[in-house]
Amino acid sequence: MTLSVPPARAVDLRVQPVDDVLDRVERSLRVRFDRDSLIRKRRSIGGRTDRGTWVRVERRSLQRIAAQGGNGPETAAALCGVAMPQWRTGLTWRDEDEPVMWRADETELVTAPPVGQAALVTEDPGLPDAWWAGLNTSLDALAAQATPRIATPDTDSITQDLVDATIRQAFPEAVDLTIPEWAPAHGDLTWANVTGPDFCIIDWEDWGTAPRGLDAATLWGNALAVPDLAERVWLERQPDLESRSGRLMALFFCAKVAGPYAHEADPRLEPARKQAAQLIDKLRST
Predict the structure, then answer these.
(1) Residue 166 and residue 221: Cα distance in Å, rounded?
(2) CA-derived radius of gyration, the chain
(3) CA 277 – CA 280 distance, rounded (Å)
(4) Which end of the chain is more exposed for a tag (fewer CB within 10 A), N or C?
(5) How many CA atoms lie within 13 A of 130 on its CB side?
(6) Contacts of 129 (CB under 8 A, 6+ apart)
(7) Over the stretch 171-220, which tens digit does the pLDDT of each residue have?
(8) Whole-angstrom Cα distance, residue 91 to residue 286?
């Protein structure tokens, strides 16, 4: 018999009162948040502590935990050669009223700010060569490791079926979409999850095995509004992005931008459509 997990109510932590959650974390981890430093996102809240660390609190449905687990930052601590905040301790508890779990992770405080305030950038951040070297070293080291976890970009477990459905919705003319190579990935490598000018990758809750090139394609796609930056990402991660799997991941990203939920005001939209046509041609010829 298969047991079903009830769906959780959609909650936006940017507006939802969470004082009781923060109080519980402070008591359990014996820290105090700098409440003025809190960064509130839809699914998480993070802030500095009086211990000179950073604590990130996430609300995750039992459905997502059943599919992937809820300890991404903790398991990522075992990765070698990747620039990320050092993980220190964690706390997990089940909500008394809803089918969700709360998790708090205390990590090293990273003082460099995120490169982008959102997933995409609309201006060139002028990153130094050392930043690009850090990106390459970290992504190469990550891909060389192994994990039973499955990456969850946009909270969905990435599978061959998901890639097929996403691309076909936007580009039904696309050819064979079979992904030949899979490797560990961050799963949400947007410009908001990399810091600069000192390179570091943050927010590891979605990491896991994914098609080769997912991270590079995500960073590239979120730079499409800045052509020179997108070109730099492509050149730096050329081995990934010019593999068949990498081209499919670039097309997968373009499909999410240009598909059924496309926004005409999105500065990535027209570049994504043009890039998709080129990618489909390349995939047909290889």
Answers:
(1) 15
(2) 19
(3) 5
(4) N
(5) 7
(6) none
(7) 999 889 999 999 999 999 999 999 999 999 999 999 999 999 999 999 99
(8) 48
Please tell me whether the overall predicted TM-score, pTM, comes out greater than 0.90 for this model. yes
- Please give the Cα distance from 51 to 173 (Å, whole number): 55
HSE toward the beta carbon, residue 57, CA cutoff 13 A: 25
Per the rule left: phi > 0, alpha: psi between -120 and 50, beta: everything else, 17 is beta
d(CA 4, CA 212): 32
159 pLDDT above the threshold of 80: yes
- CB burial of residue 264 (10 Å; 0-12, 13-18, 19+): exposed
pLDDT band at 1 (very low <50, low <70, confident <90, very high): very low
Class of domain 129-285: alpha beta
Question: How many whole angstroms separate alpha carbon 245 and alpha carbon 2?
Answer: 34
CB atoms within 10 A of CB 87: 17
Confidence of residue 70 (pLDDT cuts 50, 70, 90): confident
* CATH number listed for the domain at residues 19-108: 3.30.200
What's the CA gap between 23 and 15, in Å, rounded?
17
Q: What residue type is 104 in one-letter code?
A: A
The residue ranges of every structural domain in the chain are 19-108, 129-285
